Amino acid sequence: MSGFELDVVPVLSRSALDRAEHLRSDEQALKEGWAQAKLVRMNKRGQVRVDGNTVVLDAATSLSAEPSERAVFLGIDGDTHLWAVRDNDIEGELADLRAVGATLDLDDFGAGLLSTAIALLNWHDKARFNAVDGTPTTVSNAGWSRTSESGHEEFPRIDPAIICLIHDGGDRVLLARQHTWPEGLFSLLAGFVEAGESLERCVAREIKEEVGVDVREIRYLGSQPWPFPRSLMLGFTAQADPEQPLEFHDGEIAEAHWFTRAEVKTALAAGSWGNGGGNARLLLPGSISIARTIVESWAAAG
């Protein structure tokens, strides 16, 4: 069974955060909302303080009496303004969204809150100088842009990347492991979209470069923000011939194999890497990734 759709919306795509764009340029409204605002403190590793399974939100006034240029405005929760700030001195129980996000009490609101905070703060860390003339930039628009001394305004950028489940048109799927990954951990093939390239062309090129196979019937499935540091993952499925030899051209892939649907279902039932998967022959990414959602949907379709 080659055709399938995503069974569920990927975790980080379920954002219920009200971004309240109209408030970003309203300095008076932001100042008035600061007194009751909540603040996400995040260190450079993307970790936040948690209490059990819940992300801790501090009072914004614990940072400053009025809106600080260090903080970025994320949106609102009812009448409460929400901000984030880089704080490398936070202490206590810390959690990283990518590693243990699936175990946190992340509802659709929390998923949107943290993914937006990570992406926005990561961009600010890299955008302190203007790309046009090299002059320093300062925070503007409540953290949603930076402006240089010459008046040039830059906005947060994202890097589009494709991620693709390759199947044989039946009950086999091609999964790969990168050199830096633990033994047994396999996932879908992925890569960044290049300048002047369509998404479909990127799928074909990346798969050919990474494992040496030609794909056809390329089809879009869905997307998910992946703010590590600032990607947008665009999910696809494609078909390939399992008899075509695998060749690892670009050096990123350590090994790749065709797995049966039964093997994938067994791996899914065993949990995921870092969360109960143990030493199984096949370990799969955690539920916070779109890779897991795509694999689960393909497995269920059979």
Category from helices, strands and their pairing: alpha+beta
> Could you tell me the radius of gyration in angstroms?
21 Å
Question: How is the biggest beta sheet arranged?
Answer: 6 strands, mixed
Order of helices and strands: HEEEEEEEHHEEEEEEHEEEHH
Q: Which word captures the global form?
A: globular
Query: In percent terms, what proportion of residues is strand?
Result: 25-35%
Can you offer a commentary on this structure?
With 302 residues, this protein is of the alpha+beta class. Helices cover 22% and strands 30% of the residues. The strands form four sheets. Strands 11, 12, 13, 14, 15 and 16 form a six-stranded mixed β-sheet that branches. Strands 4-1-6-5 form a four-stranded mixed β-sheet, sandwiched between helices. It has a three-stranded antiparallel β-sheet with strand order 3-2-7. Helix 5 (261-269) packs across helix 6. The chain is globular and about 65 Å long.
Key terms:
globular; six-stranded mixed sheet; 6 helices; alpha+beta; four-stranded mixed sheet; single chain; 302 residues
Summarize the structure.
By secondary structure, the chain is of the alpha+beta class. It has helices at residues 27-34, 97-100, 108-126, 199-211, 261-269, 290-301; strands at residues 38-42, 47-51, 54-55, 58-59, 71-77, 80-86, 94-96, 137-140, 145-148, 153-154, 159-167, 172-178, 189-192, 215-226, 231-240, 253-260. A hairpin with a 4-residue loop joins β9 (145-148) and β10.
